[in-house]
């Protein structure tokens, strides 16, 4: 155990969490305090989900707008039932298939759910995380745990305990350090409160996997479609650097454009970062001005790219990068969630024909 600005940081084995650590963390939760813990997606910032006062402390610690509702975390579907009014058969089927795992279902909420959790909506978001520390904590606490991602509002979600320390040490009681999270993007949020399922936020369960169970899904909800997904109106995942996202199916065009942009900003004397897939790193290493240029690879394939994305965004900020240029990725599998996050983070989306689009689609 170490203390950082008054916050206890407790290393816990993610494969076999010890009872002592879980019990200490559960005591904090039961006492109305805040504990950050790993899930399979990103770190969460947990409080007793039945205690409105404790939940309000989450919003204070993160600087989160009070009208953006939270996800309640449970250890099993049976535990969810008392807190919702209705679970359609198809949603039950999804729960059986994907829980524990990175799928959040938005259901009609029961009165028992504090308004602080739902931001006053009559729906509630629920999920069963696939992480032994998270499940052990929920069981030890004996209550559902309300938890958003454990970052300061507007920062990329944390995928390591160090990310949580950087954002929240001194503001919360405890951090359970279970090492890096596996998936790296947040859960898929699916609206199951109406007649038809709709993706509110792409995430760790791919659209293709959902469609195997549900058949073809409607187009995802857009920012103008409020208040179905209140989180959408906020700018998310914004690194400090100005982010240029270069998108096109033609990889040569992307590589050429990224190089041109990088040359231009380096010539202006600015600190430049480039984030690319492993396949393309070599194409950028030959650029001049290496002391002002940082090139990072997210790895190979949608899963590696998702797992490394948020850590790379944070690392670029730590290096003082002023202009960050990111390649777009194919939108299959977890690539769909990756592109959703990058578009939200982008100040500019660069496409052919000078048809640049203003980014920050969610703000
Ligand atoms: O993977 C995850 O989902 C992580 C881990 C910690 O579980 N949690 C997470 O929570 O990403 P947060 O608060 O950062 O994002 C929750 C999203 C927000 O976009 C919020 O607007 C949406 O879920 N949401 C929550 N309750 C909702 C509701 N009743 N109706 C519609 N959207 C809701
Ligand atoms: Mg979040």
Tell me the structural class: alpha/beta
* Beta-strand segment tally: 18
Shape: globular
| Main sheet overview | 12 strands, mixed
Count of domain modules: 2
CATH architecture of the largest domain: Alpha-Beta Complex
Q: Uncertain regions: pLDDT < 50 for 5+ in a row?
A: none
Mean pLDDT: 93
Span between N and C termini? Answer: 39 Å
Beta-strand percentage range: 15-25%
CATH class of the largest domain: Alpha Beta
Number of helices: 12
Explain this structure.
This protein is α/β, with parallel strands linked by helices. The chain has twelve helices and 18 strands. It has helices at about 20-30, 50-60, 75-80, 90-100, 115-120, 130-140, 160-170, 205-215, 250-265, 280-285, 300-320, 335-345, and strands at about 1-5, 5-10, 35-40, 45-50, 70-75, 85, 105-110, 125, 145, 175, 190, 200, 240-245, 270-275, 295, 325, 350, 355-360. α1 (about 20-30) crosses α6. The chain starts with a strand and ends in a 5-residue tail after the last strand. The relative contact order is 0.14. Bound molecules: threonylcarbamoyladenylate and magnesium ion. Magnesium ion binds near residues 149 and 157.
